[in-house]
Known about the structure:
Elements: E1 9-13, E2 22-34, E3 40-52, E4 59-68, E5 79-81, E6 84-89, E7 93-97, E8 111-113, E9 128-133, E10 145-149, E11 153-157, E12 167-170, E13 182-184, E14 189-193, E15 199-203, E16 214-217, E17 220-221, H1 227-234, E18 237-245, E19 250-260, E20 268-278, E21 284-287, E22 293-297, E23 303-306, E24 316-320, E25 324-329, E26 334-339, E27 347-348, H2 351-356
Parallel strand pairs: 1-4, 17-21, 22-24
Antiparallel strand pairs: 2-3, 2-27, 3-4, 5-6, 6-7, 7-8, 9-10, 10-11, 11-12, 13-14, 14-15, 15-16, 18-19, 19-20, 20-21, 22-23, 24-25, 25-26
Amino acid sequence: MSDFTQQRHLVGARLLSETPLCHIYGVEHCGYSRDDYGRPRYPEIGRLMITDFTGPSCWTKVLEKTVRMDLMTETGTMGASQGWAFTLRYGGIPHLLDDLNPGVSDSDGCEISLPDLVTLPHCQTKLVTNVAMSSSSPHDEDCILAVKFAGPQLSLIRPAQEKKEWVNIKIEDPSFFSSRVMYSKRDKKFAMPASEGTHIGYWDLGENLEKPKAQEFCDFFTPELLKSEWERLDSCVTSVELVESRTTDEMFMVKRFTERNGFNDGRMEERRIWVFRQDSSSTWCFTENIGDLCIFLSNAEPFCLKASSHQKCKNSIYFIDKSERGIFILGDKYKTSNFNKFTAPYFIPPQSYLDANCSNGSHSP
């Protein structure tokens, strides 16, 4: 049964005791924040809405937790990782907020101010591709936040340090300009695939920051397709990203094919998703069987879970973007999805994953 076959809307759900597997659905407007005298002030606020993926089905909840309405805009939340939102506030000062984590109450919420962004020559810092963190908590001393901007610039920082300072890297290889960054716990480095997945670059806060610590050139075994199928896929818009399975210590490369539909709205839709598994010789082999795993793709950092532990469909990929949410079953090459306007298309990992991803975490996701 698809996770999207049953839905119900709960209004006024109580605060959650821990973070569920979910995605951000939006915000239900509820008024304005108040000053010390009870007078309304900017900005407008609303109750956080999530779609809870706990269990075999999913449903939408309106929580008691309130957040700023502008977090649902592209400029309000520039990127998210593990429930933390990267945003610019108070005239352009970068901040990390845990507002998107439904397991954190208003009173326990945290806001971390970061130094002003520094734009390198021939780069820009207004448009963010995505963000990633090496730990689920930026309070961990070893946690590193990576911000990948559209174009050549990658910026790294340790949010927990008293004297915070951005380390800004200008990437010379143009095939990384549109790439998404992720953190590999196995390799203890940030990684990005080139635009066609031909090679992978690795970065950290060690030496030789101006260039990747290593470049791994990728050998692929691709599926056999009919000529007509290749022509259809060649007409699609493609994107590539990396995701790591913490339970099996495997790395996957996911290649997505999207195309514009033939209906009046002309919206972009997911056509096909390919998965490549890295073997012991570092060859990337096409696979339609990732076993008891499921992958979650969104505008946030991707993650992988053991399907049976979370009552999800095994051998599948859950995805969400600004207009489409769905599940792709790899073995059947079957997709089911629905269309809506998702203002903040971010999947949030469950509490077990977040606990395991702390620097000192020891639990299994």
